[in-house]
Each structure stands twice: as C-alpha cells, then as structure tokens.
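Teaching assistant's notes for section 4

Start the section by putting this record on the projector. Ask students to predict, before seeing the second block, whether DUF465 domain-containing protein will look compact or extended. Collect guesses on the board.
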Amino acid sequence: MTADARPPIASTPTAVTCRHQALREGYRLFPTRLSFERSALQSSDKLPEDLASLTWLLSRLWLHHSALERRIAEAAARPRPDAAALGALKRERLAVRDRIAALERGI
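Reveal the predicted structure now:
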C-alpha cells in the first residue's frame, strides 16, 4: 500500500460501525507501520475534500498518536532513558495532537 492509498470506503453502515468499533477497541486496521505516512499526516496545507477522507485521516492520526504514547511510555520506563530521544517523541506527539485539533476545529 502506498502512502497515498486509502482503504476502500464502506458502503454499508454496518461496515462503518465495525471499523469505528475496531478503532475504539484498539485494533489496528492497517498492519503497516505509520512512519511511511508521517509526511502525509503532517501536511497542514491540504485538507481532505470529503468527510470519508477526513474521517480516515483523523483515525490514522489517532493511531499514530497512540503509537507515540506507547513508545514514550516504553522509553520512560527504561532504567536510564535517553532525554533527547524522549523529547523528540514528545514533540512529535504534540505535533500530531495539534494537527488533530486543527482538523477537528475545521469540521
């Protein structure tokens, strides 16, 4: 799957409900890592045209945010955490959270 590829849009309400339920329960809908999408997720100059694209982008941003929180917790739990790496992870998490807030304000 390329960075520009998006999952197919569900045509039935049941499929949409299942997808959102899976997100709430913490299941990963897409088994690939999120790092290849980092540039697409941080581009603030382009907003999705339709609600489905916006929903997809928000779900990906929330998944990326959750992954960053786990990585921060793992790094902080180490006996001697690397302060620079921990700071970089926290700054990235904050940038993702700011992007989420900007998209949610635009809805």
